[in-house]
Design the sequence.
């Protein structure tokens, strides 16, 4: 037996139609364009399109640079933290401190170096 309701069974819905409004269809008109060149400014749409393409290219380049530099910045902070932990661990030699530095290097700096090398 299927889980689908039969044709005689009304569908259960928590929503109820309160009101319905008929909206007349819009009459088709001439197609509109984003630029309406006049005879005196025929080069204006081409210039606007060129500016838009240039701006999108700059934004794309900035987004790529930010993505690459942010990964490198996170890696830089992780390496600075590892150096600080190593300095603190070596000021007073204790196996527990050395284990913390090793865990930090293996758990944080190692994966960050791997991720940064992929990008």
Sequence:
């Amino acid at each position: 037996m299927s889980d689908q309701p039969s044709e005689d069974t009304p569908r259960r819905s928590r929503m109820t139609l309160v009101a319905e409004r008929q909206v007349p269809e819009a009459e088709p008109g001439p197609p509109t364009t984003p630029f309406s060149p006049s005879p005196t400014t025929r080069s204006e749409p081409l210039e606007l399109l060129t500016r838009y393409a240039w701006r999108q290219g700059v934004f794309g380049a900035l987004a790529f640079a930010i993505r690459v530099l942010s990964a490198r910045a996170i890696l830089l902070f992780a390496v600075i933290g590892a150096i600080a932990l190593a300095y603190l661990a070596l000021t007073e030699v204790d196996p527990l401190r050395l284990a913390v530095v090793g865990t930090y290097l293996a758990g944080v700096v190692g994966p960050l170096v791997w991720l940064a090398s992929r990008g």
